[in-house]
Structures are given as structure tokens and as C-alpha cells.
């Protein structure tokens, strides 16, 4: 009990002050004028009243802040859910826009090349071990697909079918390093031997003095039957000399973005 004896005086003073405050409150109720004694006592205890008021006000504000924080947290969580839903809808919308754009281009290609039947298909897988060399589509022999059929994206060349099952088919793209095709510049008519290159897309080779420049559009030549002629391959990015070779190297940007492709079409001869 030693600790109580140390604070006893303070406790007694606090109790006295409280009693006086209550007493003054009772005496001054409904009175316009207080006595000098009451005024003196009020002057003594007013700092305590002010302190008590400030503390109670801060406690009230603190409780209000906690309540507002809880409400804001709930609103933020609800907004995050809405944002996530909107982002999902935006992705779905963009996919639909891209799909519709590709289908529209396919229709235009069909009108310009009536010798082909065009069968649309969706890309359902891309081989992760080979970059974008191979992809799988959701059409197969049940749809009349066969090996070596040409695959397009809109009006751009994608590759050709290499394997067919009942409901799916595997497509080797033109950027596969083992893929070769013959192209030509639409401006000059110069033939270009083209190979796939996963890093740069497509690499072509021409003889010295041949007329190919940056910006030329390249289409399939139709030679040797690897692909039908006049299918868009890509755009010449640059032409440069090769060390130890007479041939010039032609870097070509493919018309297809193989990182985002999701809809293709298969060309079938009528």
C-alpha cells in the first residue's frame, strides 16, 4: 500500500475539485450572477474544465476518424472489385474488336480471291518451348483440314498446317527458323529468299545490285508451290551487307504480330 500513500494527496485534491465543480454547477443553475467565492473557485477549476473538454473533443474526433476510415476502406474494396470487373470487360471488348477486325479483313480477302474457301479458326495454344514457331488451332480433319494448307490472319500470312487431328491442327509459322519461303517486293518485283527468325521476325537475302529498299512491301511470289502468290508477308525494315557474303541481308517485319494473334483463317482451294 506504499504506492497509495504516495498518490493519496493527489487523489484527495482531484476528488475535492470534482465536488466543488459539481457544487458550483448546482448553485449556479438558472442564475445570472455568481458570488465572488464561486467566481474564485470557478477561476481555479476552469483550466481543468478546459482540459476535460479538449480531451473529450479529441476522443470524439478520434472515434469519428476510425468510423470514417472503416467506411472508406469498405468503399475502396468495393471500388477495387468494380475496377477489376471493368478491366475484365475491357479486355473482352478489345478481344472482340480484334476478332471482328480480323474477320472483316478475311471477308475482304475472300472477295479479292474467290478461288479460296476461307475457314475461320481460333488459336488455342502457342508452344512455349519454341517461342511463336508453332501454334494450335481449334479446327481439324472434321472440318476438312489437311497438312500444307495455308493459314492467314486477315490478309497477312501466318504459316501452314503441319499436323492434323480430328478437332485440332498444328501450324508452323513463317517465323520458325526452319521455315523458308519465296517473296518479292511489290514495288520493284525483286525476288527475296526469306527465312524465319524468332529474334527479328523474318530475314531475307538478295543478290548484290537488286532493287529492295526500306519500306518495301513483301508478298509471296507463288514460286515452287510453297505458298499461293500475292499473300502479304511483311515490310522491309533495312537492307545491309553481310560480312563474308556477297548477298545482301534484308530484315523484314512480319505483317502478323505473333504475340497477340488469336484468330486465323485457313485457305482451301475451291
Describe the 3D structure.
The model has no long low-confidence stretch (mean pLDDT 78). This protein has 270 residues and is of the alpha+beta class. The strands form two sheets. A six-stranded antiparallel barrel has the order 1-2-5-4-3-12. A six-stranded antiparallel β-barrel has the order 6-7-8-11-10-9. The chain has two domains: 1-112, no CATH class; 117-269, Thrombin, subunit H (Beta Barrel). 38% of the residues lie in helices and 31% in strands.
Count the domains: 2
CATH class of the largest domain: Mainly Beta
Number of helices: 2
Order of helices and strands: HHEEEEEEEEEEEE
The class by helix and strand makeup works out as alpha+beta
Give a quick rundown of the structure.
The chain has 270 residues and is α+β, with helices and mostly antiparallel strands. The protein has helices at 2-27, 36-112, and strands at 116-126, 134-137, 150-153, 156-164, 169-173, 180-185, 191-197, 201-206, 217-220, 232-242, 245-254, 263-269. It folds into 2 domains: 1-112, no CATH class; 117-269, Beta Barrel (Thrombin, subunit H), CATH 2.40.10.340.
Key terms:
2 helices; 38% helix; 31% strand
Task: Describe the protein's topology.
Blueprint (H helix, E strand, L loop, with lengths): L1 H26 L8 H77 L3 E11 L7 E4 L12 E4 L2 E9 L4 E5 L6 E6 L5 E7 L3 E6 L10 E4 L11 E11 L2 E10 L8 E7 L1
Helix pairs in contact: 1-2
Amino acid at each position: 500500500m506504499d504506492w497509495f500513500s504516495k498518490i493519496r494527496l493527489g487523489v484527495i485534491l482531484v476528488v475535492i475539485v470534482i465536488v466543488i465543480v459539481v457544487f458550483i454547477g448546482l448553485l449556479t443553475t438558472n442564475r445570472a450572477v455568481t458570488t465572488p467565492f464561486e467566481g474564485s473557485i470557478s477561476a481555479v477549476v476552469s483550466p481543468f474544465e478546459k482540459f476535460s473538454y479538449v480531451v473529450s473533443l479529441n476522443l470524439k474526433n478520434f472515434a469519428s476518424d476510425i468510423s470514417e476510415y472503416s467506411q472508406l476502406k469498405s468503399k475502396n474494396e468495393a471500388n477495387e472489385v468494380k475496377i477489376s470487373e471493368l478491366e475484365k470487360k475491357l479486355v473482352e471488348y478489345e478481344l472482340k474488336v480484334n476478332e471482328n477486325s480480323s474477320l472483316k479483313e478475311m471477308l475482304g480477302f475472300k472477295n479479292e480471291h474467290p478461288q479460296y474457301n476461307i475457314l475461320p479458326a481460333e488459336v488455342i495454344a502457342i508452344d512455349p518451348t519454341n517461342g511463336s514457331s508453332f501454334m494450335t488451332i481449334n479446327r481439324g480433319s472434321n472440318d476438312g483440314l489437311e497438312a500444307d494448307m495455308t493459314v492467314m490472319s486477315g490478309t497477312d500470312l501466318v504459316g501452314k498446317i503441319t499436323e492434323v487431328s480430328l478437332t485440332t491442327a498444328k501450324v508452323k509459322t513463317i517465323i520458325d527458323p526452319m521455315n523458308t519461303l519465296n517473296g518479292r517486293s511489290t514495288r520493284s518485283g525483286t525476288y527475296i529468299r526469306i527465312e524465319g527468325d524468332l529474334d527479328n521476325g523474318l530475314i531475307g537475302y538478295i543478290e548484290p545490285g537488286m532493287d529492295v529498299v526500306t519500306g518495301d512491301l513483301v508478298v509471296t511470289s507463288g514460286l515452287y508451290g510453297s505458298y499461293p502468290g500475292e499473300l502479304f508477308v511483311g515490310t522491309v525494315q533495312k537492307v545491309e551487307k553481310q560480312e563474308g557474303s556477297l548477298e545482301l541481308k534484308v530484315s523484314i517485319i512480319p505483317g502478323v504480330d505473333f504475340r497477340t494473334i488469336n484468330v486465323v483463317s485457313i485457305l482451301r482451294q475451291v
